[in-house]
Amino acid sequence: MSDFIEIIDVSPRDGLQSQPVLLGVEHKLELIKRLIDAGIRRMEAVSFVNPKRVPQMADAEEVVRGLPQRDDVTFIGLVLNLRGFERAIACDIDEINCAVVASDTFNLRNQGTTTEGTMELIREITREARAAGKKLGVTVSAAFGCPFEGEMPMEKVTGLVQRLAAMGYDHVSLADTIGAAGPSDVAGMIKRIRTLEPGLSLSCHFHNTRNTAVANTYAAIQEGVKIFDASCGGVGGCPFAPAATGNVATEDLLYMIHRMGLKTGVDIDRIIETAKWLEGPLGTPMPAMVTRAGVFPSAKAA
What we know:
Layout: E1 6-9, H1 11-15, H2 25-38, E2 42-48, H3 60-66, E3 74-79, H4 82-91, E4 95-101, H5 104-111, H6 115-131, E5 135-141, H7 154-166, E6 171-176, H8 183-196, E7 201-206, H9 213-222, E8 227-230, H10 250-259, H11 268-282, H12 289-293
Parallel strand pairs: 1-2, 1-8, 2-3, 3-4, 4-5, 5-6, 6-7, 7-8
């Protein structure tokens, strides 16, 4: 299925973690249900992090208990330390995702340790996850730039990717956490990783802070990437990165991908409906451009 692009919707976790309004479990589960109804088959549902630092995710276990039992849907939980991993295992989330920040300063602020400290933690979690038979993924965050250290040297990012490949990972996600990259940065990074680790699968996680996320996705597709994170309505941000805005909007990606003649299995109209519904509980308009403008041609025009 070379024309298929997988969209992982991260709005229930990454989308909600920076919102000033704390949504209740019922609203989170309704968002998840609507995403499934729209055709999303993988989503980041929760994070198992310190509730004092990220109160929006304090009810992770309760959300997991309320998730629909679907063999065709994978629910992902983010963990940043051993305590989070233990919580994820205890509630039997489908898939666990770890993150390491390419920048030491950002990693310290986000995870309380250096990049090297997190790499050692990931090594330990990897052993534990394999022993438990649990699927585990890894994201390299701030892969294209850090709000504290500036440009990320490509060799630093690729070095982390190579070390993860040596741990046995056959898939790694690259995250532009602060929306710093342009299309040439993305293409160059992917080309370099392909040269160093030709058997490695990549996915991308783009934030739209500087309005380059859709262009960066196009560049990544041209380089053969088939899996992308996105957030319904474009809602989100990082609580530990100054001025960071939301992930690229799911509907904005879908519009471009579908116009390219590629398939996703996701109904863009239902994603737009979900984004408009989410404006109510959050009390704010969604930044997604397609939700505001609509698809073209519209059903009325057609």
